[in-house]
Amino acid sequence: MLRPLIAMFAALAVTSGAHAEDQPPAIEAIVPEGMEVMVEQLTYSPAVRAGDFVYLAGVVAGLPMDENGAMVDANPENLTAAYERAFAHIDIILKEAGASWRDVVEMTTYHTDDLQKQVDAIIPVKNRYQAEPYPAWTAIDIDRLYPDNGVTEIKVVAYAPLSRD
Predict the structure, then answer these.
(1) How big is the chain by its Cα radius of gyration, in Å?
(2) Dist CA 95 CA 103 (whole Å)
(3) CA–CA separation, 57 vs 90, rounded Å?
(4) What pLDDT, on the 0 to 100 scale, is given for residue 24?
(5) Long-range contact list for 64-70, CB < 8 A, 24+ apart?
(6) Please, are residues 14 and 119 in contact by the beta-carbon 8 Å criterion?
(7) What's the 3-state SS for 137-154?
(8) Could you give the domains of the chain?
(9) How far is CA 85 from the centre of its chain?
């Protein structure tokens, strides 16, 4: 039993090109023009490429504030507008990384307030950007986001090989 396992792992090491001197994939920060403030003031990258994967930081869909600093009503129309802005923002970051929505393999959304209402509002927007095969999606109900006007945070992972044959 042990001998076939050793042979299998040896074969994997040879076919994968794994050697002791191999280095992990280079990590590259993805910072589209106009998003430098994230790095300079908040000290994080909008996305990071690690080999063939692109990991985006969460993009917050926020509602506008009124003159008193209170969020406008989270009605379906206002939620749709917030999601449109967030998905367009994600699109810019993906393009800067050499990826597209077709490359997205995983999406996680963090929702404040009424989870069902927010999921119902995000699906039509999501479906304008994503097509089959749809990425894996996890929707999580949380208490609060940064900044305070955030209602949903959207985080995606894309598989975008550096060399596409």
Answers:
(1) 20
(2) 11
(3) 9
(4) 57
(5) 64/149, 65/149
(6) no
(7) EEEEECCCCCCCCEEEEE
(8) 24-159 (3.30.1330.40)
(9) 14
